[in-house]
Design a protein that fits this description.
Elements lengths: L12 E6 H13 L6 E5 L1 H5 L3 H10 L4 E4 L2 H9 L6 E3 L8 H6 L2 E5 L2 H10 L7 E7 L11 H13 L4 E8 L10 H21 L5 E5 L1 H6 L7 E4 L24 E6 L2 E5 L4 E2 L5 E2 L5 E6 L16 E4 L2 E6 L7 E5 L8 E8 L2 E3 L1 H7 L6 H5 L6 E5 L2 E6 L4
Parallel strand pairs: 1-20, 2-3, 2-9, 3-4, 4-5, 5-6, 6-7, 7-8, 8-9
Antiparallel strand pairs: 1-10, 10-18, 11-14, 12-13, 14-17, 15-16, 15-18, 16-17, 18-19, 20-21
Helix pairs in contact: 1-3, 6-7
The structure holds pyridoxal-5'-phosphate (PLP).
The site of pyridoxal-5'-phosphate has 11 residues, from strand 9.
Length: 395
């Protein structure tokens, strides 16, 4: 994360992040958890495109106990921004970087005994021990130990270097918690329980940190909350999948919206073309066409042109012609003034274009939508209706 503060932007395209929505989502999800279960706010990938530092601070003040990120760099960025809460790196960190994690009090995910041997050489008694959570692969098939033998080898390696590694917890990740059928989740849980028993017996830890629940699990399987849930997507106000949307009773509010403004307005004669390939032709005499300064380099990918709509003056307007790198065109219901606001994701009056709608259009999941809006789109961070931060990574 850059340290220079950027308080301005000079283009008419921006994303808005409503911290009140995030605060409310954290509060409401927490209310549904069993007594004593903690909340890890997952803020990897710049908080799913929302802005990691603002989201992390908001979630912590709303009652989150700790943070989850994917890579060490993301953890260090939070530390540099003054965030002191516990941070767990959910992905793999190179053994040679373990000392950096120790220095900045960042908790790592461990699952390979060789990794412990390699990291042990890097960590000195001076940096202090690195905190670790053991990852068990109970069926996700991504990272994690899978057998009793692998657990035994890891536990022995950690014992050998007990002054360098501090085992704090154990966790797993579900592959199908966002699907109606619960058979695979139950099977994964059963395997996790096996390793949890072995972990407690071997380490003698009375109160380890134990976690398995992502958003879908936290919202649907209260019994799997353990000591901590790891919540990402639903903190941002999105349901983990359409399949289980009907089951989610916690009201969630989408925090992310995407806006632009009309830069040019013109009227076309019937048959006149718009954009590369001249694939769109005006079918009516005097069609009004508006230009918007957003394109695929902003993460507004070309596939959005197929059936895509935006909101202008509270009405839907279709995207016409191919989306360019930096600009695209829409068909206007009538002449509008240059500078008129266009909403690509979010609400205008009674009309809403949700991240779910955009995901459906692109044949993907809602997670991808805020993540794919690129660094080039400034993030305007709002709290209580006031702009409190502006992140412009371009200038
Ligand atoms: C990203 C991630 C999460 C958060 O998942 P959501 O579905 O966004 O709640 C939790 N755990 C791990 C290991 C992850 O990688």
């Amino acid at each position: 994360m850059r340290t220079r503060k950027n308080h301005a932007f000079y283009r008419d395209t921006w994303a808005e992040v409503n911290l009140n929505a995030i605060e409310q989502n954290v509060t409401r999800i927490k209310q549904g958890l069993p007594e004593g279960a903690g909340f890890m706010a997952v803020v990897k990938a710049n908080a799913y495109g929302h802005g990691a530092v603002d989201v992390a601070k908001t979630a912590l003040s709303a009652g989150a106990a700790c943070l989850g990120v994917a890579i060490l760099d993301e953890a260090l960025a939070l530390r540099h921004a003054g965030v002191e809460a516990p941070i767990l790196v959910l992905g793999y960190v190179r053994p040679e970087d373990a000392s950096l994690a120790a220095k900045y009090n960042v908790t790592l995910t461990v699952f390979q005994h060789e990794w412990i041997e390699e990291a042990a050489v890097q960590i000195s008694e001076r940096t202090g021990p690195v905190k670790c959570h053991v990852k068990v692969d109970t069926g996700m098939g991504r990272i994690g130990l899978r057998t009793d033998g692998e657990w035994e080898a890891l536990a022995s390696a950690v014992e050998k270097y007990s002054s360098l590694f501090q085992l704090e917890g154990i966790y797993t990740h579900f592959a199908t918690a966002d699907e109606i059928d619960d058979a695979y989740v139950r099977e994964q849980h059963r395997k996790f329980e096996h390793f949890l028993t072995a972990f407690k017996k071997r380490t003698g830890l009375g109160n380890p940190v134990v976690h398995s629940a992502n958003s879908a699990t936290a919202l649907r399987y209260r019994e799997y909350a353990h000591t901590l849930v790891r919540v990402g997507i639903s903190m941002y106000g999105l349901v983990p999948s359409e399949e289980i949307a009907g089951e989610i009773t916690v009201p969630l509010e989408q925090a992310f919206s995407l806006h632009s403004r009309i830069t040019h307005v013109k009227q076309l004669n019937r048959g006149e073309a718009v954009s590369y390939g001249a694939t769109y032709r005006a079918s009516d005499e005097g069609e009004w066409i508006g230009t918007i300064p957003i394109g695929y380099a902003d993460g507004w990918i070309r596939a959005n042109a197929s059936g895509g709509e935006v909101l202008i003056n509270g009405e839907r307007a279709p995207i016409v012609g191919r989306i360019c790198m930096d600009q695209m065109m829409i068909r206007l219901p009538e002449e509008v003034a240059r500078g008129t606001r266009v909403t690509l994701i979010g609400q205008q009056g009674k009309e809403v274009i949700s991240a779910d709608e955009v995901a459906r259009r692109l044949d993907t999941i809602n997670y991808e939508i805020p993540c794919m809006i690129s660094y080039r789109v400034p993030r305007a961070i709002y709290r209580d209706g006031h702009l409190i931060h502006l992140h412009n990574e371009v200038f």
